[in-house]
Amino acid sequence: MLYALKDCANLRVDNSAGKTQMFVNYAKTSSLEFSSDSVFAMNKNVKAVRFDSNREGTFTTSMEIFPMDMIPLLFGTKFTNETVPFAKREVLKVTSGSATLIGTPKVGSLQVFKVENDDKITHIKEQSVGTPGTSPDTYSISGQTLTLNATTFPDDNGYIACYYFVDTPSKSFKVDNISFPGGYVVYGDTNLRGTDQIDEFVQFKLHNVKPQSNCTLTMDVDNIATLEIVWDIMGDAEGNMLTWSSIV
Q1: How many CA atoms lie within 13 A of 124 on its CB side?
Q2: Cα dihedral 236, 240, 246, 248 sign
Q3: Which of 58, 115, 194, 218 has its CA 20 to 30 Å from the CA of residue 67?
Q4: Which of 191, 189, 186, 187 is nearest to 6 (CA)?
Q5: 128 beta partners
Q6: CA-angle at 167, arms to 137 and 176, nearest 5°
Q7: Is 90 buried (19+), middle (13-18) or exposed (0-12) by CB count in 10 A?
Q8: Are the CB atoms for 210 and 181 separated by under 8 Å?
Q9: Mind listing the pLDDT tens digit for each residue in 197-227?
């Protein structure tokens, strides 16, 4: 029987203790590649005998949709629930010499700039904490309300950009210089279709894999980001790297 393959395998990823970490049925591509080193004994200038060694393998998966848990897996870490300083930017219109922030700034983090009215981006002058009743380019804050100088903002057509941090509960992870991914066992499910037009279920097992700790996420207005993970395939305690099984 001859077969054709047009599918991306669904993946089950288990840690070294056998506990399933994730199930992936949304990848666009998955590819297996094996290589080995060869040396030859020569009969004069003709290769006569080949010796093979050092088999290596990689398993590459690419996806355009993915759970965020996939990212910290590449760095040997996990998401945790914690409070982090979240960076905010607000552009506010100054009305009657005051403006009201939406958030509550973390103490000492607030920066206030007068900005161009047309783009509301270009900084004209930073406003410093002071006495706005008498000093231009100063402000005071009470709660979330900013009071600004009437000379700096003589009418109701001025804008300020406020940059600050807000302590916010979040789900986050860190990348450090000592944590790296662990080892996994990967099971892949796919189908081969024979020339009789009947699908044959196939499952492969990668006995000992470890994702390369490389990650590129390109944020592009024209193209969808693709997450590619390359897993190094190594041998288990018995030297097994791959088991390929057809269900008959």
Answers
A1: 14
A2: negative
A3: 58
A4: 191
A5: 138
A6: 110
A7: middle
A8: yes
A9: 989 999 999 999 999 988 888 889 999 999 9
